[in-house]
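In the design runs reported in the main text, the only information available to the sequence generator was the tokenized backbone. The following block is the verbatim input for one such run; it is reproduced so that readers can re-run the procedure and compare outputs position by position.
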């Protein structure tokens, strides 16, 4: 395991898929938004989901929002690199955009849950799995309960799943601890494309 500050040398010559995973509430969306803001030449995979959009989410940018019937069709037609059910909703990664990006020489980054990450590792053994972890368990609990937008039973289930996901840390190639968004984004960028000159 590493903190992401010294990896990625091989990606320059042979771009590969990096999978970012981590428990709900750990800040994956914020870290990816910061990475996008910096404008690196990375293909950001957009997942398909049956989940309803949250306030501010844009179809085709944050997710491709589809109904259950369309999701089943994509699974049956082999259009998804991986798919999983999480908290009562289905998520999947379109296969074609990832394969096109890698074939064109561009590293690809996707953010998925643990079940999907395991499927990607099986389908693409060369993929790098990166876990985004909270500074502490108490910090994660505070983030999830502080949202105030979900039923307590749903939060309790998310915490139960989070324990399972964090226990899977040994399956990952690297772990980035999200002490703050900027540092976490730098570490992730180093893992995806290699160390950037002038960064710690």
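Verbatim output:
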């Amino acid at each position: 395991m590493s903190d992401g500050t010294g990896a990625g040398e091989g990606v320059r010559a042979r771009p590969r898929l990096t999978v970012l995973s981590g428990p709900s509430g750990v800040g994956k969306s914020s870290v990816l938004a910061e990475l996008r803001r910096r404008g690196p030449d990375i293909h950001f995979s957009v997942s398909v989901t049956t989940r309803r959009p949250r306030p501010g989410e844009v179809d085709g940018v944050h997710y491709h929002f589809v109904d259950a019937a369309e999701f089943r069709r994509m699974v049956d037609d082999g259009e998804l690199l991986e798919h999983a059910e999480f908290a009562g909703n289905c998520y999947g990664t379109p296969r074609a955009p990832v394969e096109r990006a890698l074939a064109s020489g561009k590293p690809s980054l996707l953010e998925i849950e643990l079940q999907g990450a395991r499927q990607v590792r099986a389908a693409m053994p060369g993929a790098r799995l990166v876990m985004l972890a909270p500074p502490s368990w108490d910090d994660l609990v505070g983030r999830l309960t502080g949202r105030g937008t979900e039923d307590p039973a749903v939060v309790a289930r998310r915490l139960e799943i989070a324990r399972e996901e964090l226990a899977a840390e040994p399956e990952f190639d690297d772990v980035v601890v999200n002490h703050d968004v900027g540092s976490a984004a730098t570490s992730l960028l180093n893992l995806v494309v290699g160390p950037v000159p002038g960064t710690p």
